[in-house]
Amino acid sequence: MLKILKIVFIAVLVSYSGLSQTTEVVFIQMNDVYEIAPLEGGKYGGLARVKTVIDKIKQTNPHTYVILSGDFISPSALGTSTYEDKRINGRQMVDVLNAIGLDYVTFGNHEFDYKYDVLQERLNQSQFEWIASNVKRNDNGTIYPFSSNGIDLPEYKVLKVQGYLKNQPIKIGITGICIDANKQPYVSYSDYYSSAREVYSILRDSIDCYIAISHLNIDEDKKLASEVPQLKLIMGGHEHVNMLHKVGETLITKADANAITIYIHRLLFDEHNKLLEIKSELVSIDEKIPEDPKVKALVDEWVTRAYKGFYDKGFDPLKMVIDLKQDTLDGRDETVRYSQCALGYLVANAMFDAVKGADLAFFNSGAIRLDDKLTGEITEYDIIRVLPFGGKILRVELKGSLLKQIIETGFSQPGSGGYLQYYGLEQTAAGYKVKNELIDENKVYTAAVADYLMSGMESNFGYLTKENPGVIKVTEPDLADKSDLCNDVRFAVINYLEKWYKPTKN
Questions:
Q1: Do both 116 and 50 map to the same domain?
Q2: Domain boundary pick from 264, 284, 304
């Protein structure tokens, strides 16, 4: 993962010479946060460190607001464990975000990974405010706002900050836009651009600045900036990699996922001349920053709770599986969703190894949620981080014609969770080969397949279900057989790694 210690960017959004008297408003931006504790052996990230940064800035500027641009309830690895006889399902994320003093969020696509009742629990638990301009609740065709503790989520927020001019507070309009990538039946999406324009049309005569909390891909963010040029700042997410772009007079920023970096935006308002300057700084959250003791204690408490849940499921989170020494397994989205990679090969190989008599193995790259690099001592918890959803491995007998269709679908969508990682498949100029022979459309092949991929719910794989006529037979693992590695792909990966390379330490 590219580590950027500090980048400072200054955008003068309205040209001027000489400030008279300025008021500074600070926005601290995070996005795509799934882990509450530091990563990479404690080197980077950790919300207790973020809390330290927040408090330090607030000591000098009370006009400081903390933003999270979507994706945090899911898919957190700790959230897949259980506590109080229930799956945690992101409860730990909201609890810790409450503790650090998060102010405003918008939905990310992964907020809708869970069923509606789980999402509603997290909304009710939130002490911060959700802003949802283009996302509403779809209740069997009746559309209305989502709510938190019985109060409708607002489509926008007008933040009022008292500056130097009495009786004339600075007013900042905020819109919240979410990508329509998770089409759950209980969610209704409106057009991103028209929603942002509509909010501006309501606020235009009553605000001094218009900004967005966005969870779109970068191309959509750029189009948003072009379609709604009144936006001065778009604090985005979704890609997991830090970036900064400027479209016209609109600044677009994204930090690295899991609070490995955060953006600090300083909005300087010249109240006399009605001018604005934005200074944006990308800051690394690393071991140089001390952890806030109260937040650290809460993080440790949740880690302990989740680990107990994993122990109950048969995992030993702290047990070292393998010492990679100088090797690295790249689990970043920009790698696993775009190319065949060592980590994808490893998981597919483990699946192949678990299904006796398999000809090949394949799975959807979206199952890998690590978005990080693994090196050094790899624990069972690291494997859980790689595959937080777990899932069964199915033994699928299918016709070669369907196998070809699956392969072509997977390789046709790089960047998507539907991009396939595989083992036992060779791509040649003449076509795809299995066991050194071109795929025969009339032959029946045996594949180790992730159960989610066979559900038909992955992107562009709606046809891949047990009912497809090209599927001859699907064999499920025996849930009563605790030794059957196919019951959870994570056990298969752990077993394969232990066979592949014995740990040097206990």
A1: yes
A2: 284
Dihedral angle, C-alpha 179, 184, 190, 193, nearest 10 °: 10
Q: What are the residues facing 89 on neighbouring strands?
A: none
**Strands 373-379 and 425-428: what pairing?**
unpaired
CB 118 within 8 A of CB 184: no
Give the per-residue pLDDT at 324. Answer: 86
User: What is the residue range of 77's domain?
Assistant: 6-12+36-284
* Average predicted confidence (pLDDT) for the chain: 93
Helix axes 91-100, 47-60, angle to 10 degrees: 20
| Per-residue pLDDT at 8 | 57
Decide if 300 is inside a domain: no
**How many other CB atoms are found less than 10 A from the CB of residue 320?**
16
279 plus 384 within the same structural domain: no
The token pair at 404 is 């070809």
256 CB-side CA count, 13 A: 25
- Give yes or no for a contact between 476 and 392, defined as CB atoms under 8 angstroms apart: yes
d(CA 104, CA 378): 35
Which DSSP symbol is given to 286? B
Q: What is the pTM of this model?
A: 0.84
What are the pLDDT digits (tens) for 54-106? 999 999 999 999 999 999 999 889 999 999 999 999 999 999 999 999 999 99
Decide if pLDDT at 12 tops 80: no
In what helix (H) or strand (E) does residue 243 lie, and over which residues does it extend? Answer: strand 243-247
Q: Both ends of the chain: CA-CA distance in Å? A: 28
> Are 369 and 451 in a shared domain?
yes
Identify the pLDDT of residue 291: 98
Name the DSSP class of 439.
P
Q: Where are the alpha helices (DSSP H) in 326-453?
A: 333-336, 342-354, 380-386, 400-411
Residue 471: its pLDDT value, please?
98
The answer to whether position 309 is within a domain reads no
The distance of Cα 459 from the centroid of its chain, to the nearest Å, equals 17
Q: Which two tokens stand for residue 318?
A: 């702290």
Rounded CA-CA distance 420/413 in Å is: 9
- CATH number of the domain residue 59 falls in: 3.60.21.10
Structural tokens at position 149: 């503790």
pLDDT (tens digit per residue) in 132-175: 999 999 999 999 999 999 999 999 999 999 988 878 899 999 99
Structure confidence by residue, pLDDT tens digits, 13-52: 443 334 458 999 999 999 999 999 998 778 899 999 999 9
Count of domains in the chain? 2
Residue 134 is encoded by which pair of tokens? 């283009």
- 267 with 392, same domain: the answer is no
Is 267 in the same domain as 342? no
